Amino acid sequence: MAIYIGGTGSSNLLDDYEEGSWTPQMHDGNGSNVVLSNTSGVCKYSKIGRIVNVTFQVTRDEAGSKTGRLEITQLPFQSISAAQLMAGSWWMDRGTGNDTSGGGIYVLGSATKFRLVNPTAVHTNQSGDDAAKAATRYLEFSQWANGRHIYGNLTYMSV
After folding, report:
1. Cβ distance 158 to 111 under 8 Å?
2. What contacts 154, CB < 8 A, 6 or more positions away?
3. Closest CA relative to residue 132, chosen from 121, 147, 116, 140
4. Residue among 59, 32, 29 at smallest CA distance from 142
5. From CA 120, how far away is CA 143, in angstroms rounded?
6. What percent of the chain shows pLDDT beyond 90?
7. Mind giving me the DSSP string for the chain?
8. How far apart are CA 99 and CA 104, in angstroms?
9. For residues 15 and 119, what is the distance between their CA atoms, to the nearest angstrom?
10. pTM for this structure?
């Protein structure tokens, strides 16, 4: 059965639907790979036409001195050429009862990667301290403890 949206021409035919799992990868500010684990059955996507919806739960599994902004890569489809500034949301489990209420997700144009926008609220375990508010636009490795989870979802337009 064909489904047409807004008319019966071929440009209005909805003929692309897909769903499945994806495997996020991560890079640090120097472009180095970072070891992380994906929770089985959680990193999923669905694609309807050019709209892609993604869910994820990732855990940092590498202690050490990674630095700089982190990027999550390997989205299931390349994004359109324009950056998509508020494509979703995320939050971090800090394991202390003072989790970070995450921010938006920034999908880079013509890419298969995104950045986690830092919230303007506290990003450390020091509740209410202005000095502990996010000092960087995007989440950095110094703000993510080894073994902790990040959860999120995003919707973006693919090419």
Report:
1. no
2. 53, 54, 87, 88, 89, 105, 107, 114
3. 121
4. 29
5. 14
6. 38
7. --EESSSSSGGGEE--EEEEE---EEE-TTS-EE-EEE-TTTSEEEEETTEEEEEEEEEE---S---SB-EEE--SSPBPSS-BTT-EEEEEE-SSS--B---BEEEPTTSSEEEEBPPSSB-SS-TT-GGGB--SSB-BGGGS-TT-EEEEEEEEEB-
8. 16
9. 38
10. 0.82
Distance between CA atoms of residues 57 and 42, nearest Å: 6
The first and second tokens of residue 24, run together, are 């996020």
* Per-residue tokens: 98: 């003072």
> 43-90 pLDDT, tens per residue?
999 999 899 999 999 998 877 777 788 899 999 999 999 989 889 999
Q: Are 76 and 45 in contact (CB under 8 A)?
A: yes
Nearest residue to 116 (alpha-carbon basis) of 80, 95, 143, 78: 143
CA–CA gap between residue 77 and residue 159 (Å, rounded): 8
pLDDT digits (tens, 9 = 90+) for 98-117: 666 678 999 999 999 999 99
